[in-house]
């Protein structure tokens, strides 16, 4: 799948500015960014739920820009499930097949397909229940099974875990990654959760104000941010004097030299002490981690820090 020079405006608001992006077969790609960055608009344009003002959407080299969502053969999973409350779980899963105008399978085949998918998403035996009788995590699995029923060439997910609590979200993320690999899917998902993107995606597309700031693997985006925005949005970062950006875990305490910091707060964070302080002479807050096997720095003390790995940005990446 490829989008070329895609633009979109809503009234006076420019939602997308000349987006170029290629998704390879079998990839799991995250569109990551804050609210208003254009990620959901881009996903809806790929699906055919919105239409771009300019540019092309290509599937296997063929321009599908004028085709409806039904003609594009994509599966779409929404944050709020969008299940039919009056239908059973099995009927919800089978819906996409049962309303096909062309090539609709026999009813027995549709039922068998629904049962097969419910087993795949670990909900076998629940086909006769209604959505209201399921947990949030189970409803999201039903929504995913329904999207897979049509055997989509592309699976699109819009904040698929946003309505779930943290524990269920983490379990479903792990499960979805395994399902993606087992089925050989090509998937794109929208999220504003950096942890979700770093854990799930093969590649991350970081967006801001309708533009792509960076495309790369989770390792590249986290360790080699292409702009100050990426550095600040993906993971935690400090800006030191001289325009240097550095992650909290890439700062070490030193006995002499370095940058003097007055310790304002110390608290445990997993296997480390998280230290917050102010750089002397700059009134700038800095955060860094100290191995919890070492004594915690004392509030009010002045310590000296040295960046282990740093990055400097000379201009904004467009």
From TrEMBL:
The keyword Iron does not apply. Keywords: ATP-binding, Nucleotide-binding, Sulfate transport, Translocase, Transport. GO terms for molecular function: ABC-type sulfate transporter activity; ATP binding; ATP hydrolysis activity. SMART domains: AAA. Transmembrane segments: none annotated. Gene3D superfamilies: P-loop containing nucleotide triphosphate hydrolases. GO terms for biological process: quaternary ammonium group transport. It holds the Pfam family ABC_tran. GO terms for cellular component: ATP-binding cassette (ABC) transporter complex. The keyword Transport applies. Residues 1-234 form the ABC transporter domain. PANTHER family: SPERMIDINE/PUTRESCINE IMPORT ATP-BINDING PROTEIN POTA (PTHR42781), SPERMIDINE_PUTRESCINE IMPORT ATP-BINDING PROTEIN POTA (PTHR42781:SF4). This is Sulfate ABC transporter ATP-binding protein. The lineage of its organism: Bacteria, Pseudomonadati, Pseudomonadota, Alphaproteobacteria, Sphingomonadales.
């Amino acid at each position: 799948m490829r989008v070329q020079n895609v633009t979109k405006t809503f009234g006076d608001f420019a939602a997308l500015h000349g987006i170029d992006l290629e998704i390879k077969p079998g990839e799991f790609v995250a569109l990551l960014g804050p609210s208003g960055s254009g990620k959901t608009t881009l996903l809806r344009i790929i699906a055919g739920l919105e239409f771009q003002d300019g540019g092309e959407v290509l599937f296997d080299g063929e321009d599908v820009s004028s085709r409806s969502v039904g003609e594009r053969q994509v599966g779409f999973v929404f944050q709020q499930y969008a299940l039919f409350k009056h239908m059973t779980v099995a009927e919800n899963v089978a819906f996409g097949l049962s309303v096909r105008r062309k090539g609709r399978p026999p009813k027995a085949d549709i039922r068998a397909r629904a049962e097969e998918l419910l087993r795949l998403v670990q909900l076998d035996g629940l086909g006769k229940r209604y959505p209201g009788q399921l947990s949030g995590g189970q409803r999201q699995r039903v929504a995913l099974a329904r999207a897979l029923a049509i055997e989509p060439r592309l699976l699109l997910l819009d904040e698929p875990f946003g309505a779930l609590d943290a524990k269920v979200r983490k379990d479903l993320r792990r499960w979805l990654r395994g399902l993606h690999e087992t089925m050989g899917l090509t998937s794109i998902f929208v999220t504003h959760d950096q942890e979700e993107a770093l854990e799930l995606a093969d590649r991350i597309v970081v967006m801001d104000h309708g533009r792509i700031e960076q495309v790369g693997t989770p390792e590249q985006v986290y360790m080699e941010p292409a702009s100050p925005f990426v550095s600040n949005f993906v993971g935690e970062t400090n800006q030191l004097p001289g325009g240097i950006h550095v992650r909290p875990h890439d700062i070490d305490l030193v006995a002499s030299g370095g940058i003097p910091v007055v310790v304002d707060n110390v608290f445990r964070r997993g296997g480390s002490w998280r230290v917050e302080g102010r750089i002397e002479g700059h009134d700038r807050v800095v955060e860094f981690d100290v191995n919890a096997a070492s004594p915690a720095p004392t509030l009010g003390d002045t310590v000296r820090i040295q960046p282990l790995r740093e990055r400097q940005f000379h201009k904004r990446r467009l």
